[in-house]
Design a protein that fits this description.
alpha/beta; 4-stranded antiparallel sheet; Alpha-Beta Plaits; 34% helix; Rossmann fold
């Protein structure tokens, strides 16, 4: 595969009524894994759809391997992209193989070539034994595999994956990610996720989305060290009253019987915090020690919770 990158410059998407879904998004993604991390409604899916050539931007520029996706070279650029939306519109009464052949022919392949590529794609994603089953009988994990098969049929340089692990049980998510990592070698992978652990584990670079824009970006470990280097002790207790101060450390209360403390060393701070609550006469129900991660980074840079 030749050298390639995805370059997004000042991308906007505005809808009638003054609704702005994406505002001034710019980034560059090279080979490896780049995640767009944020809650639903933060602009991730809209951005991916515009990069894929499925949704026209209001303004901005998208260049894939030197070709403008929305310019005169758009057809050539789109051939370099495989796009896996969260809900692929498969024909439920057709088999997995028949769906892939249909998708291949829509993309301009003849029947013989479409069938050959479909068979190859089913083997790549481990569905060769299930290709003749109707899609309506597929599990969630199998449907996600079939979606990935559909987007790699034409051997693209770039894979765009919208929430690839969402809605799957832990085992199915592990299997799907094992597949994505094997298919992603040597390719550019840009995917969206609202799962912080997924972004932390499977990203070379994370772009944090909030309210339609990118508010921070970088390798996961660098983001954690910059924005959330210390562990937190979270105390669940009876509501009411100010949380006690411990060795000069103020407690940050959410106002619903949950208070957290940022500490340098959790093991030494934990007994002091419990003792302070007991002295204050506040009933403690549960205590958690939370190691720093991208969920905390998101809260630090946006002031909001990372939720589905």
């Amino acid at each position: 595969m030749s050298e390639c990158s995805v370059v997004v410059e000042d991308l906007w998407k505005e809808y009638p009524g003054g609704i702005v879904a994406v505002r001034g998004v710019s980034f560059e993604a090279g080979r490896g894994f780049t995640s767009l991390m944020g809650p639903n409604g933060s602009g991730k899916t809209t951005t991916l759809s515009m990069v894929a050539g499925a949704l026209k931007p209001s303004r901005g520029r998208i260049v894939v391997c030197g070709l403008d996706v929305w310019g005169r070279e758009g057809v050539r650029a789109r051939r370099l992209i495989g796009f896996a939306p969260q809900d692929m519109p498969f024909k439920e009464k057709l088999s997995g193989m028949e769906n892939l052949v249909w998708i291949g022919m829509i993309r301009g392949l003849g029947y013989v070539d479409a069938k050959r590529q479909a068979r190859r794609a089913l083997e790549l994603v481990g569905l060769e034994a299930h290709g003749n089953r109707r899609v309506v009988t597929y599990s969630g994990g199998m449907r996600r595999r079939l979606t990935i098969a559909a987007c790699v049929m034409h051997e693209p340089e770039v894979l765009l994956l919208d929430e690839p692990g969402s809605g799957l049980d832990p085992r199915a998510r592990e299997e799907v990610w094992g597949l994505i990592e094997s298919l992603g070698r040597g390719r550019i992978i840009v995917y969206s996720t609202h799962i912080s652990q997924e972004a932390e584990r499977h990203s070379d670079r994370v772009l944090i989305f909030h309210s339609g824009g990118i508010v921070a970006g970088g390798p996961p470990r660098m983001l954690i060290e910059r924005y959330a280097p210390m562990p937190r002790i979270i105390v669940y207790h009876d509501p009411g009253g100010a949380p006690p101060m411990v060795d000069g450390l103020p407690g940050y209360s959410r106002g619903d019987g949950v208070t957290y403390y940022e500490v340098e060393e959790a093991s030494s701070a934990l007994p002091k915090i419990i003792e302070a609550f007991l002295r204050a006469g506040i009933q403690v129900h549960k205590v958690e020690v939370k190691r720093p991660g991208l969920e905390e980074v998101y809260f630090r840079v946006t002031g909001a919770r990372l939720e589905a």
